């Protein structure tokens, strides 16, 4: 997998790869100093800070899109002045005898339509799909709180597209109002990456502030030997939904996605999301975090030597909002990406008693079980030994 960006120049489309998908974004700020403009092909992740407003997408098998007659995408003096076109190619065999003559035509009219349209992206950014599964479901909710925050008024959906990669089998997008599903935006039970179905919604469906948008994806990993994670590569997976909505003025952010159960809107916009100031937490000399590190340093040894006195300290430290639940997982995930500084030591101190604490918990459970049933089944013993071995192995790897 190779992914790249281009600005307005299309000449390098003659690169020798197969075209997989295009997406167009516009620079949301008034960028006068050519910030964000590339002089040639550059790696670009999924957009950039200056250029992250998706307004069009094309993918393998799609004929193109026409917007609903009530809305268009405004270009010119009062609209988009510069676009970035992102092209994804897939060439797993690294063949050099392919050439690409793809292109695109954008149609425009001087007759302004009554509304400005824009794309809203929803979905789950964290995927972990175990190998060998007939069916593995993942979901994500753009919550009531999120839509209250992102919408200054109702918006209407005119088009929608599900997006997963090759393991994707089923995907739906639902609008939930007052705990009740009021409509499916998409409902695809025979998803195919190579045959995307852009759904035209007529009459348009309304989303109001306080509604929820639920994305559900079903994957089949029967033929996979390894766990599949989320990522941009064709062999990675995605669970996203794209909706063309209007009026653009009522939508303050173009994405409403989650990382496990965490709202990314909240994580990126709040100063103290879920009670955890992430910036301060990663700074081990900050007064919020330093006492935690000191407690661990005074009672624990790093790299899985578990001291008896460490267990209680760990239990207490783990109650910190930055270390519990999905926020804790997110922090570890982020720490793994920036593997330097003192943070890995902090984590190794924190995790030094994991095996022992799990063992204690299991023995406790066994004892309780024994008291109530009067005997321990051999299966339970086996489970205990197996899970203990697994944890040991995980820590050794
Ligand atoms: C955008 O840039 C133009 C030209 O530099 C300037 O005249 C205009 O005031 C800017 N608009 C905003 C909203 O900053
Ligand atoms: C979703 O699609 C399936 C298969 O086409 C169909 O059986 C089901 O009724 C649909 N559900 C809704 C709510 O449209
Ligand atoms: C964290 O707290 C500091 C002040 O201690 C504040 O400046 C910052 O905006 C807060 N939030 C984030 C996400 O850094
Ligand atoms: C970390 O926190 C300390 C104490 O609040 C502060 O002086 C220092 O500037 C912070 N470091 C960074 C990199 O933000
Ligand atoms: C479970 O109960 C049996 C007898 O009922 C006893 O011999 C055994 O020691 C008990 N095990 C534990 C872990 O308490």
From TrEMBL:
<dbReference type="InterPro" id="IPR000323">
    <property type="entry name" value="Cu2_ascorb_mOase_N"/>
</dbReference>
<keyword id="KW-1015">Disulfide bond</keyword>
<dbReference type="InterPro" id="IPR014784">
    <property type="entry name" value="Cu2_ascorb_mOase-like_C"/>
</dbReference>
<dbReference type="InterPro" id="IPR024548">
    <property type="entry name" value="Cu2_monoox_C"/>
</dbReference>
<dbReference type="InterPro" id="IPR036939">
    <property type="entry name" value="Cu2_ascorb_mOase_N_sf"/>
</dbReference>
<dbReference type="InterPro" id="IPR000945">
    <property type="entry name" value="DBH-like"/>
</dbReference>
<keyword id="KW-0732">Signal</keyword>
<protein>
    <recommendedName>
        <fullName>Dopamine beta-hydroxylase</fullName>
    </recommendedName>
</protein>
<dbReference type="InterPro" id="IPR008977">
    <property type="entry name" value="PHM/PNGase_F_dom_sf"/>
</dbReference>
<dbReference type="GO" id="GO:0005507">
    <property type="term" value="F:copper ion binding"/>
</dbReference>
<dbReference type="Pfam" id="PF03712">
    <property type="entry name" value="Cu2_monoox_C"/>
</dbReference>
<feature type="signal peptide">
    <location>
        <begin position="1"/>
        <end position="25"/>
    </location>
</feature>
<dbReference type="Pfam" id="PF01082">
    <property type="entry name" value="Cu2_monooxygen"/>
</dbReference>
<keyword id="KW-0325">Glycoprotein</keyword>
<dbReference type="GO" id="GO:0004500">
    <property type="term" value="F:dopamine beta-monooxygenase activity"/>
</dbReference>
<feature type="domain" description="Copper type II ascorbate-dependent monooxygenase C-terminal">
    <location>
        <begin position="119"/>
        <end position="257"/>
    </location>
</feature>
<feature type="domain" description="Copper type II ascorbate-dependent monooxygenase N-terminal">
    <location>
        <begin position="44"/>
        <end position="94"/>
    </location>
</feature>
């Amino acid at each position: 997998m190779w992914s790249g960006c281009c600005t307005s120049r299309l000449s390098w489309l003659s690169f020798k790869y197969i075209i997989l998908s295009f997406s167009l974004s516009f620079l949301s700020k008034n960028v006068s100093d050519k910030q964000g403009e590339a002089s040639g092909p550059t790696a670009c992740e999924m957009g950039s800070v200056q250029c992250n407003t998706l307004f069009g997408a094309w993918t393998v098998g799609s004929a193109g899109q026409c917007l609903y007659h009530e809305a268009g995408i405004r270009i010119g003096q009062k609209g988009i002045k510069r676009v970035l076109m992102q092209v994804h190619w897939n060439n797993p065999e690294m063949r050099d005898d392919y050439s690409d003559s793809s292109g695109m035509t954008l149609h425009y009219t001087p007759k302004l339509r009554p509304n400005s349209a824009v794309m809203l992206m929803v979905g789950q950014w964290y995927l972990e799909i175990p190998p060998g599964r007939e069916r593995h479901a993942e979901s994500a909710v753009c919550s009531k709180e999120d839509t209250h925050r992102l919408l200054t008024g109702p918006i209407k959906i005119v088009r929608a597209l599900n997006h997963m990669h090759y393991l994707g089998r089923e995907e739906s997008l639902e609008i939930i109002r007052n705990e009740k599903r009021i409509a499916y935006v998409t409902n695809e039970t025979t998803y195919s990456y190579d045959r995307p179905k852009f759904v035209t919604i007529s009459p348009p469906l309304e989303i109001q502030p306080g509604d929820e948008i639920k994305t559900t994806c079903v994957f089949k990993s029967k033929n996979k030997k390894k766990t599949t994670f989320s990522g941009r590569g064709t062999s990675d997976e995605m669970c996203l939904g794209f909706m063309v909505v209007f009026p653009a003025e009522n939508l303050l952010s173009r994405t409403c996605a989650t990382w496990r159960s965490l709202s990314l809107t909240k994580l990126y916009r709040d100063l103290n999301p879920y009670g955890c100031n992430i910036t301060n937490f990663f700074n081990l000399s900050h007064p919020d975090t330093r006492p935690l590190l000191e407690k661990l340093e005074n009672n624990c040894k790093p790299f899985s030597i578990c001291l008896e006195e460490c267990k209680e300290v760990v239990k207490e430290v783990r109650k910190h909002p930055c270390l519990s639940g999905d926020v804790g997982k997110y922090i570890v995930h982020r720490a793994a990406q920036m593997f330097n500084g003192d943070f890995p030591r902090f984590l190794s101190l924190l995790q030094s008693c994991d095996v022992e604490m799990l063992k204690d918990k299991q023995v406790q459970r066994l004892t309780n079980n024994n008291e109530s049933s009067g005997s321990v089944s051999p299966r339970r013993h086996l489970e205990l030994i197996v899970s203990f071995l697994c944890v040991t192995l995980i820590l050794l790897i």
